[in-house]
């Protein structure tokens, strides 16, 4: 493995074509990389490319990019339906479900598809990078590369080394993220890293206010946004992130801190997830996003 070879000529594989994978694929294509996007759900990568195309059109309309830049980015993005089609990629960025075992299994499969020089990165929000790399033939080539939502617009990227990670990957990924217009920050391989750890009480206290019927979600969000100076209140932020993704992060931090009660998952949030109310992506979470949808009973 030679991380110095990571540059705009590196073909990038993105695995998981949900909110984050689509954003990361778009970002890499905008930065000049050839990108292959894969999702285990048939058709999901193609649908992600359609969402990306609409976003790129919007960027051209708002004067943020030229039509030629848009066309270039679109041409560089390819949806693939088989993991084997990722062969030849020099960097693989994983953005699948926030659970340890599927991530470990995916990376073990990727090691058989990608060359020995390929760098593996996980976009996990909270899971130990050391644990994700467990069982790999070359765990030193795996690193945490944690983008924020939406990946095309949020500047911060946390770079996380696991115990086995090759230290040379850190400067290589700093340089790459900067080339993608990001601000990389080294974060420890601790539960939730930095941002998701600091953010946990923000969600938890909002959820407690809701459980104690102190204030409805809309009122908490409005106050924090309009009077508190936050870009988003806790409930609209969970709806943006994905209520189920946010819950998985809480569960992962709760478990990794030996069940510290400060990070205990909320029953209200668990109920929303059980009912499929994932937030914006499903049309309803703590708030409603489509017409004719009944209000959540929380
Ligand atoms: P999502 O639910 O929107 O998308 C996940 C996608 O991965 C789905 O399309 C699913 O079909 C696919 N997938 C699941 N298992 C797979 C597998 N084994 N192989 C291939 N594809 C698979 O989730 P989202 O929000 O994009 O999150 C993805 C990862 O990024 C998670 O680890 C999450 O914690 C992390 N993350 C999420 C952020 C957010 O705001 N949503 C922010 C930063 C990181």
From TrEMBL:
Keywords: Oxidoreductase
GO molecular function: (3S)-3-hydroxyacyl-CoA dehydrogenase (NAD+) activity
Enzyme Commission designation: 1.1.1.35
Domain (3-hydroxyacyl-CoA dehydrogenase NAD binding): residue spans on this chain: 12-187
Origin: domain of life: Bacteria
Residue ranges of domain 3-hydroxyacyl-CoA dehydrogenase C-terminal in the record: 192-289
Family: Belongs to the 3-hydroxyacyl-CoA dehydrogenase family.
Name the record gives this protein: 3-hydroxyacyl-CoA dehydrogenase
Included stretch of the parent chain: 1 to 298 of 508
């Amino acid at each position: 493995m030679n991380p110095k070879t990571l540059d705009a000529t590196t073909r990038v594989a993105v695995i998981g074509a949900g909110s984050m994978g689509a954003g990361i694929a778009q970002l890499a294509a905008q930065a000049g990389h050839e990108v292959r996007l894969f999702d285990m759900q048939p058709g999901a990568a193609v649908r992600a490319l359609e969402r990306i195309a609409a976003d790129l059109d919007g960027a051209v309309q708002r004067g943020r990019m030229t039509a030629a830049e848009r066309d270039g980015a679109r041409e560089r993005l390819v949806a693939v339906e088989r993991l084997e089609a990722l062969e030849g990629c020099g960097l693989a960025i994983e953005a699948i479900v926030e659970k340890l075992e599927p991530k470990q299994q995916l990376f073990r499969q990727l090691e058989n598809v990608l060359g020995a020089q390929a760098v593996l990165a996980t976009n996990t929000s909270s899971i130990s990078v050391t644990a994700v790399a467990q069982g790999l033939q070359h765990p030193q080539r795996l690193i945490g590369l944690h983008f924020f939502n939406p990946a095309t617009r949020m500047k911060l990227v946390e770079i996380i080394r696991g115990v086995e990670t090759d230290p040379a990957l850190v400067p290589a990924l700093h340089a790459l993220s900067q080339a993608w217009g990001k601000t990389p920050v080294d974060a420890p391989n601790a539960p939730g890293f930095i941002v998701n750890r600091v953010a946990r009480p923000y969600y938890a206290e909002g959820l407690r206010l809701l459980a104690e019927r102190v204030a409805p979600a809309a009122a908490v969000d409005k106050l924090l946004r309009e009077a508190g100076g936050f870009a988003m209140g806790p409930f609209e932020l969970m709806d943006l992130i994905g209520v189920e993704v946010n819950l998985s992060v809480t569960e992962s931090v709760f478990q990794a801190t030996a069940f510290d009660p400060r990070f205990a998952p909320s029953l209200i949030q668990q109920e929303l997830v059980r009912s499929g109310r994932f937030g914006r992506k499903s049309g309803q979470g703590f708030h409603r996003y489509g017409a004719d949808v009944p209000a959540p009973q929380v």
